[in-house]
Amino acid sequence: MSRPSPYPRELCERAVRMVAEVRANYESEYAAITAVAHKLGIGTAETLRKWVRQAQVDAGDRPGVSTDESAELKRLRRENAELRRANEILKAASAAIHFGS
Fold this sequence. Notes:
mainly alpha, single chain, elongated
């Protein structure tokens, strides 16, 4: 499980918007990302690059798993594990009743 970001969501969204706004002023997207990360005090440019890539996926501009899809998969996996545990408990209880008779 990934740990929560130390950065507020508003900062992430603002940083991604800023990269899009200033991209034309730099020779590469990464140069724009580096400049924005430095300007906003984001630990490393790589952190902001990941946010930009995820925003592109979420917008449908890049292939990958969107944030919403990822959250839904996580929820379904958790639910599936819970149902498997409940099923095992029921099987064990059923076997105990069957053999106890």
